User: Fold this.
Amino acid sequence: HVQLVESGGGSVQTGGSLKLSCEVSGYNLSTDSMAMGWFRQAQGKEREWVASMNSYDVPKYADYVAGRFTISKDNAKNTLNLQLASLEPEDSGIYYCAASARGYFTYAFTTENGFAYWGHGTQVTVS
Assistant:
């Protein structure tokens, strides 16, 4: 059973940084093959894609975060990370970690239907 638990959210000022982590259980990031990603949902808006990695750890970013956010995996800790920098108020929202079913995916999914498992989210507030 795959479980994802996000952490690292908080309140920061415009221009600040945060590091979000997603602890993964049920998958071994060192040996299992899947795609992973981050989404966010601002209050009153639909959830939107932020960044993802295909099964070969090739990243892909939404235009509105490219150059500011970095997605990475820490195999030793079995976590998926998202480094947020140069934060803007528009980046505020609940950030969700997502994982696909097992498989070798050359495409980095950018829509929710590419992912089978979701965390409960961590709140990021930029003011």
